[in-house]
Specification:
It comes from Temnothorax curvispinosus. Helices cover 32% and strands 26% of the residues. The chain is built from eleven helices and 20 strands. Strands 1, 2, 3, 4, 5, 6 and 20 form a seven-stranded mixed β-sheet that branches. The longest helix has 24 residues.
Length: 382
């Protein structure tokens, strides 16, 4: 019996649907240039060699998708809310029986962070062709939305319980307002007295807060820890499962789920055809042809992936130092059930799914775990 058929039963019908929609580039620019008219804004974009037609086309596709979804939900006699701001949407997640992410993978990841229960289903639709569709179903026109709900009505879908990582942190500054990575900035030329005063105020505020926190955001893809300044390496202590701790120096560490094994984790581990051919020639004395090289690469890259519902996670130590001062037998990648990382960072951060970040400096620790109750209930259309 399909989801919408089940919904006909008073116990299961999703009477309340929350749509979380992407803020289009045009809408974002309007909020940051509220003093400009539409024509003035488009004129400024042209002067910056930005194609305004492309931005408007993306905006109109997004609006058309939202309107069509609203029309279908009205016809189904379903109460709905379509929101663009995560802060507003977070207040309605508990109200909703079904969450629909309208946008690309970034929108889906943002929406998933608002869902803490493994009971609330979510699916994503993406009105923008050519963009990332790991989690979302790409649509080319509004009629596709009608077909989506027909598939739901007939049960032409599966439910995938995607594993998510719970993070428990200890340290200072855990209850500061989290920020998005792209908002991280450094003020140049700051007066020393002002900097010291702000630092003192933060230390006083941090001292009054608990030094342990279970983060309210569950990571669907990955958690990454590193210094914010990319050129500065970080030292960390790592313990996987019940094995011995070890210290590494690297550009960071990525801890990912099965869903995340198809994303940044895979990118970190990609190898080139030239590397495969060089290693094969050194090992066998024979040069692989193009077909053989592609076969080896495909097999290697496929081996990096594991199922999204897997209750284990993988870590990848990014650009680990292997000089004579550091152990050479440490594996930079492995799958495990639990991971604990202690930071020796200077200006480091812990970043969940490439967005929300918290400070992760010297003495701070982060423990990661996956359990069935942390899963995300994702509807996948056939």
């Amino acid at each position: 019996m399909g989801l919408l058929n089940c919904l006909l039963d008073n116990r299961h019908w999703p009477k309340r649907v929350l749509g979380i929609s992407k803020l289009s580039a045009f809408e974002f620019l309007k909020t940051t240039h509220s003093d400009l008219s539409n024509n003035q804004l488009l004129s400024r974009l042209r002067k910056q060699n930005i194609d305004p037609d492309e931005i408007l086309a993306e905006h109109h596709r997004q609006l058309a998708c939202e309107k069509e979804l609203a029309r279908i939900l009205r016809n189904l006699d379903v109460s709905y809310r379509i929101m663009k701001r995560i802060g507003d949407a977070s207040k309605c997640v508990d109200w909703a029986d079904l969450v629909i992410a309208i946008g690309g993978d970034g929108t889906f990841l943002s929406a998933s962070k608002l869902i803490t229960s493994n009971k609330t289903p979510i699916f994503g639709i993406n009105p923008h062709p050519g963009t990332s569709n790991t989690f979302t179903l790409a649509i080319d026109h509004s009629a596709d939305i009608e077909r989506i709900f027909e598939k739901l009505r007939t049960g032409d879908y599966v439910v995938l319980m995607r594993s998510r990582i719970r993070t428990v942190m200890t340290g200072e500054g855990l209850y500061r307002q989290p920020f998005h990575v792209h908002e991280k900035s450094r003020i140049q030329g700051e007066k020393r007295i002002d900097a010291l005063m702000r630092s003192t105020q933060r230390k006083i505020a941090d001292a009054l807060q608990p030094r342990r926190r279970i983060l309210p955001w569950l990571a669907l893809n990955e958690v990454f820890m590193a210094e914010f300044l990319a050129s500065r390496p970080i030292m960390m202590t790592i313990q996987a499962d019940d094995e011995e701790k070890f210290v590494i120096r690297s550009s960071g560490i990525c801890v990912c789920t099965g869903s995340g094994s198809r994303s940044w984790f895979r990118t970190m581990n990609l190898q080139t055809a030239e590397t495969v051919q060089t290693l094969a020639a050194m090992a066998t004395g024979r040069q692989l042809d193009e077909k053989e090289t592609c076969k080896v690469l495909h097999k290697y890259h496929s081996n990096l992936l594991f199922p999204p519902e897997n209750l284990k996670m993988a870590y990848m130590i990014y650009e680990m130092s292997r000089s004579s001062l550091w152990p050479k037998l440490i594996s930079d990648r492995r799958i495990c059930c639990r991971i604990k990382v202690k930071s020796m960072g200077f200006d480091a951060g812990l970043v969940l799914d490439g967005s929300v970040s918290l400070p992760f400096n010297d003495g701070s620790t982060a423990s990661f775990e996956i359990r069935p109750e942390y899963s995300l209930k994702n509807i996948i259309l056939r």
